[in-house]
């Protein structure tokens, strides 16, 4: 701005000398108005002049009208309006009246950066940038459709697809939210994805009714089921002021080659402003990592967020977690999945840090190569407490030699890049890369480390495959042995069950035999004595044939009951429940007769031959 002021002062002085010395008149009108051409009389030099008349080579011409672009949003419509900066706010409203069919009297045009604006305000006086975003409110008009509480409840249960474009990196995120989610929840989710804090988010595409972050998506007027939004990082006050000054000093000049010097001076002035802005910003920047952080994961979260805030979102993906967890992730998986570990050591007080971060770590080729082949872990060495903590971790994991190497590094040798390769029993530091390097050199050293790692990885893969083959054979043998044991156990259990069943049946049989023997003995003892041959009473002689062909005989009193014969047969082991006693002539089933009748009554007197037959 100072150089611009000096240049303008030089032009005015040159104009004043030309017209006062040779024309006797000063330039009338504004400095940036139309050029006043001197008359013949005024252009004649006076007799007292000691200077030769020189026509000024630099002429100031009238600036061309400046065109302004307006994107005006109304509900679900966007209207593009292009006007000269000499037009008024009312002219914009008249154009919108034709496009939106809304009376000017019912229209409130919002989104201006300054207050106290009415329809007669000239756009030039607002010092607007070339591209502007406005929106229309119509509080006196009813909404397009009235929704009752039932429809609102239904909207709360619906899912909205928000297609959010990150402006700086030109990346789209498709996020699903329920209608009951709030605008604040959306912004917090976007912060997790883009690392842009909510207070620094600059949005485009929200409906005009979405004026409160606590409003639900269902009530905000979003287009269902899909709505497009754009988010970017809000410019800092220094950047905003710089843009305004650049737009305000948009002077169109017609000149000869001398004008190039002026343009170069302007560009140089802007660069100085940017440089001083960066310097002042660096004084205000937050630390990369909190001092004495108890949790390494939380410290790495702040490191990643601050790194993105300073150098942009295109940077290595830093592992969030402790150094031990990074070892576990890089070295202790399957051999094919293992990677090298890259440890980035940051130092804010080094003069190389900004260049290394912005030009090395943020290079797309390097970011891609690191993400594919490395697990990247970071630590901030600026604070003495954090430095001591890392040296302790370094001694524990890499040994005192590596820790001493890092301890002796001077501040201006930072940042450092440590390339670590995991081995069977230890971790080996392949390379320590200092900050005074180039992208190509850094890439070559990373690739050299990858060659060493790839050779070791191939050996590990071979060993792992052989080990897995041996383990597979052992597993197959163990499985076959297990199946054999299962079969033997099943066979043994079947035999044991069979033996147990046989034993049970044998026990039952023995019990039944014992029971039958007891019954037989009881019946045998209860039988009346056999009558003698010389008995004077009527005696019946019965001859009984068993199923095996044997015979047994006995004499009974003719007056004895038939039950006595049944008991006698049962005492011989043929209970009448299992055997039937049959007569021969005529053939009859004696067991069907009344057991209380006498032998005389059932005609088994004086003798009879009977035979036993098992019942079915």
Automatic annotation (TrEMBL):
Residue intervals of the UBX domain: 535-612
User: What is any one of the record's Gene Ontology cellular component terms?
Assistant: nucleus
Q: Does the keyword Signal apply?
A: yes
Where is the secretion signal located? 1-20
Molecular function (GO) terms for this protein are: NF-kappaB binding; ubiquitin binding
**Which parts of the sequence are annotated with region: Disordered?**
30-50, 521-540
- Where is composition skewed (Low complexity) in this entry? 34-50
Q: Does the keyword Signal apply?
A: yes
Question: Which keywords are on file for this protein?
Answer: Signal
Q: One GO biological process from the UniProt record?
A: ERAD pathway
Q: Which PANTHER family match?
A: FAS-ASSOCIATED FACTOR 1, FAS-ASSOCIATED PROTEIN
Protein name listed in UniProt: Fas associated factor 1
- What is the native source organism of this protein? Chelonoidis abingdonii
Gene from which this protein is expressed: FAF1
């Amino acid at each position: 701005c100072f150089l611009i002021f000096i240049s303008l002062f030089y032009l005015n002085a040159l104009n004043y000398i030309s017209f006062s010395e040779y024309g006797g008149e000063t330039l009338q009108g504004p400095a940036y108005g139309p050029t006043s051409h001197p008359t013949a009389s005024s252009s004649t030099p006076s007799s007292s002049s000691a200077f030769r008349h020189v026509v000024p080579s630099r002429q100031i011409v009238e600036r061309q009208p400046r065109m302004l672009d307006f994107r005006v949003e109304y509900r679900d419509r966007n209207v593009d309006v292009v006007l000269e900066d000499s037009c008024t706010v009312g002219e914009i409203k008249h154009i919108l009246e034709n496009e939106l069919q809304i009376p000017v009297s019912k229209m409130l045009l919002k989104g201006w950066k300054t207050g106290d604006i009415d329809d007669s305000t000239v756009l030039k006086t607002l010092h607007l940038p070339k591209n502007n975003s406005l929106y229309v409110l119509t509080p006196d008009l009813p909404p397009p459709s009235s929704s009752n509480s039932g429809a609102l409840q239904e909207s709360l249960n619906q899912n909205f697809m928000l297609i959010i474009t990150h402006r700086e990196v030109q990346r789209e995120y498709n996020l699903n939210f329920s209608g009951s989610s709030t605008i604040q929840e959306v912004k917090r989710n976007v912060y997790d994805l883009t690392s842009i804090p909510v207070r620094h988010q600059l949005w485009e595409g929200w409906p005009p009714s979405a004026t409160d972050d606590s409003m639900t998506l269902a009530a905000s007027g979003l287009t269902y089921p899909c709505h497009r939004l754009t988010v970017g990082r809000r410019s800092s006050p220094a950047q905003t002021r710089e843009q305004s000054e650049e737009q305000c000093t948009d002077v169109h000049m017609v000149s000869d080659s001398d004008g190039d010097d002026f343009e170069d001076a302007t560009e140089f002035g802007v660069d100085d402003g940017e440089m001083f802005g960066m310097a002042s910003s660096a004084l205000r920047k937050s630390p990369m990592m909190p001092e004495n952080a108890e949790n390494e994961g939380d410290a790495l979260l702040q490191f990643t967020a601050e790194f993105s805030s300073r150098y942009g979102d295109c940077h290595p993906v830093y592992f969030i977690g402790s150094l031990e967890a990074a070892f576990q992730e890089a070295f202790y998986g399957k051999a094919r999945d293992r990677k090298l570990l890259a440890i980035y050591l940051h130092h804010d007080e080094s003069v190389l840090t900004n260049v290394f971060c912005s030009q090395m770590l943020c290079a797309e080729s390097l970011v891609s190569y690191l993400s594919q082949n490395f697990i990247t872990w970071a630590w901030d060495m600026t604070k003495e407490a954090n430095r001591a903590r890392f040296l302790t971790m370094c001694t524990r994991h890499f040994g005192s030699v590596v820790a001493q190497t890092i301890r002796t590094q001077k501040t201006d040798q930072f940042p450092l890049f440590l390339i670590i390769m995991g081995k069977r029993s230890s971790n080996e530091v392949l390379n320590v890369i200092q900050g005074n390097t180039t992208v190509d050199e850094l890439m070559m050293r990373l690739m050299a480390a990858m060659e060493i790692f790839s050779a070791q990885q191939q050996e590990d893969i071979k060993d792992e495959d052989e080990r897995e083959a041996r383990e597979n054979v052992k597993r197959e043998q163990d499985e076959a042995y297990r199946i054999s044991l299962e079969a033997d156990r099943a066979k043994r259990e079947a035999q044991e069950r069979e033996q147990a069943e046989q034993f049970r049946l044998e026990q039952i049989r023995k019990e039944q035999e014992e029971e039958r023997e007891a019954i037989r003995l009881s019946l045998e003892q209860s039988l009346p004595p056999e009558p003698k041959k010389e008995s004077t009473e009527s005696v019946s002689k019965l001859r009984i044939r068993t199923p095996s062909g044997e015979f047994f005989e006995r004499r009974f009193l003719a007056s004895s009951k038939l039950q006595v014969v049944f008991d006698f047969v049962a005492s011989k082991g043929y209970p009448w429940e299992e055997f039937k006693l049959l007569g021969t002539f005529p053939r009859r089933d004696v067991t069907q007769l009344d057991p209380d009748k006498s032998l005389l009554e059932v005609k088994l007197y004086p003798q009879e031959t009977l035979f036993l037959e098992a019942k079915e």
